[in-house]
Automatic annotation (TrEMBL):
It comes from Cajanus cajan. It comes from the Eukaryota. Residues 47-69 are annotated as: Disordered. This is Retrotransposon Copia-like N-terminal domain-containing protein. The lineage of its organism: Eukaryota, Viridiplantae, Streptophyta, Embryophyta, Tracheophyta. Residues 55-69 have a biased composition (Polar residues).
Length: 69
């Protein structure tokens, strides 16, 4: 199933990183990641969910992982 909203960096970030605009680009990417609840994955504060869930003999695909992916 395709996600309802696809995040594409090229269309979401009008300012491309170069040798003179790091601060502006950093602020732009940080806001984008926070707005899409992705910032914690970049900083390591949020662990990605496990791909499988359940107990031995009853293991299924984790819907949280599917959504995260």
């Amino acid at each position: 199933m395709k996600p309802l909203i696809e995040l594409t960096i090229a269309t979401s970030l009008p300012i491309k990183l170069n040798s003179t605009n790091h601060h502006t680009w950093y602020n732009q990417i940080t806001h984008l990641l926070k707005a899409n609840d992705l910032f914690g994955y970049v900083t390591g504060e949020t662990a990605c969910p496990p791909p499988k869930t359940g107990s031995e003999g009853n293991v299924t695909t984790n819907p949280e992982y599917t959504h995260w992916q």
